[in-house]
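debug: dumping io for the single-chain case to check the tokenizer round-trip. Nothing else runs in this session.
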Amino acid sequence: EDGYLDSEAESIPVEIAKADITITADDKSGNIGEDIKDLTYKVEGDPVPEEILGISINTAAKADSEAGTYPITLSWNENQNCSVKLVNGKYIINKYESEIKTEPVAIEGLVYTGVAQDLITVGEAEGGTLVYALGDGEFAATVPSAKEVGAYTIRYKVSGDDRHNDSEEKSLVVKIEESALNIVPVIDEKTTELHLVKGEKFTMPETGWKVDKNKYLSISKKDVLSAKKETKAGEAIEIKKDSRIIKVYIHQPKLAENKGKLDAGKGENKQLAFDKGYEGFTVFWTSSDPDVATVSANGLVSAKTKGKAVITAYVRGKAYTYSLTVTESVPLAERTIHMTIGTGKKVRVKGVKEWKLAEGITATAKKTKITASKIVCGPSVFEGEGKDGKKYRLTVVVEDPAIRSREVTLNSKKKLELTLNEGEAVSIRHMYMERQPFFKSSRPEVAFASAGGTIVANRAGKAKLSAKINGKTVTINVEVK
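debug: decoded output
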């Protein structure tokens, strides 16, 4: 101010420290096949406008990614005025839950036959394959069978596919009883009736029985009854001992049919029965070849595969046979036609007037004309109704000759090594499979396999593709350059 001199200048050190900030990505999850959810994050520490930091957030998870855990990664603009710690997150893609649509049921009335018998009915699953295990054995898709007398525990569950988890394990118990051939009449003081089969010899537990001479029944000196001829309906032969009388009825059982045909391809069954004989007899059923046809304890015959088998019904040790021929037509659902990409053809089957698309995106239908896609390869399934009122299914496999020109045949006993360039594709065939196996990729961003069995190279790197074929794991190691 006026009258005063200026003082000398002094300096005061002032430090502006870097902003200390932590950015944390929020974990996310969703189901396979769903759109990826919005990614979010939290910013903690010194207050700094986010636009100064230039934060970006990304994930390797895609809408078509397989189930698994994928990284959520953060980045920022490396502003020199800030010290930033990044905490990345994870995006979990979950599988759906599989479900048992039809529970397998224990087969009742099983009796020892000397050959293996199915223990349960076949169940149905959604989201995978219903598999079974006998006792502590390994799970398999085939229905368990057993031969010996005893109680068996069957475990079962759904083995989920690539989009579904395994279901919880369940169990049931099935019994095989002793052979019906051991069942013989019990004769005691209260017995008033005895039923025999023509040709049967039956030893009485007591001696001294007598019978008047007749053409139906005789008694030996050792008290063995011989049933020689069928008695008339409602009539009996009396055997006597002192004041006791037992009425003996002799029957000649006869199967309603003695030969026939079944179609294993259609899963046909047939109930065998006697149209003549005594209902009180215990019948013991066997099959000469269970691989061709099986028969239940109640006489229900089930066709299994093409061939011939003899179904035998034993009644009190006497055999009655049914000769069976099993054919094996191929259901239309398992028939496949191959079409070149971009082509079309009319498909007429059993009077089907219109095919409707049931599965897939590789082909379309207008009435009976099937048109293959111009850009997508792989299978599609169509359904239609014939003049006979039955439902028919048709599988159409669309193929690209350019891709098929480079084709690799797999052998389930070895691994396959492939080296591809970016954007290159190769068609995979398996020498033991009519339909293409589905290969799961460890790194789909590097290489993946389509449902049609084509491996596509995306970008440089390495990936392992694997599939279950005939119960064995087949591996393809792919290197993309």
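debug: round-trip ok. Helices lie at 50-53, 401-404.
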